[in-house]
Amino acid sequence: MINNVLKLKLYQAIQHKLNDSKLLITSSLNDLTNDAKNDTKSTAGDKHETGRAMMQHEQEKLRLQLVELENQISFLQKINPENKAEKIQLGSMVQTDKACFYIAIAFGQIVIDDTNIFVISPIAPIAQQMLGKSINDLFQMNGLTYTIIAIV
């Protein structure tokens, strides 16, 4: 069953994974930048230019990933994991009869203390069905009826 300790551990685990991803992307971006600086003009001509273009494309992809990651980190930091509400809202951890959800960012599934938790964005369709509901309320998604058991 979900509780405040589990919710805090979850929040910290998400923060940690996002920060690790940011470090990895930043490191990869720095490596590519250094490779580009150290790359000397080869006699291969077109081959060299193609390689540089591919490197620049990869740098741009990494920059976009970094921006998205920084947006997620920023959004997550706006959530107080110690907040508790009677009705489901942003930052709520919700136990239903079928699954456990944390309404924060689009992150996917994570396991904390043997509990499978789906970390979802507040704009996800299932989150939209839950927002504003209370314990014992029902909602439907994809032909299934969910019963809200607990909100932390």
Order of helices and strands: HHEEEEHEE
Radius of gyration, taken over Cα atoms and rounded to an integer in Å? 21 Å
User: What is the share of helical residues?
Assistant: 40-55%
Please report the number of helical segments: 3
Oligomer: single chain
What is the strand content?
15-25%
Strand order within the widest sheet? Answer: 3-4-2-1-6-5
The first-to-last residue Cα distance is: 10 Å
The average pLDDT score comes to 92
* Morphology: elongated
Total of domains: 2
Characteristics of this structure?
single chain, about 150 residues, alpha+beta, 2 domains, six-stranded mixed sheet, 3 helices, about 20% strand, elongated
Please provide a written account of the structure:
This protein has 152 residues and is α+β, with helices and mostly antiparallel strands. It has 2 domains: 4-77; 93-151, no CATH class. The protein is 48% helix and 20% strand. The chain contains 3 helices and 6 strands; from the N terminus they run ααββββαββ. The radius of gyration is 21 Å and the shape is elongated. The model has no long low-confidence stretch (mean pLDDT 92).
Give a nutshell description of this structure.
This protein has 152 residues and is α+β, with helices and mostly antiparallel strands. It is built from 3 helices and 6 strands, in the order ααββββαββ.
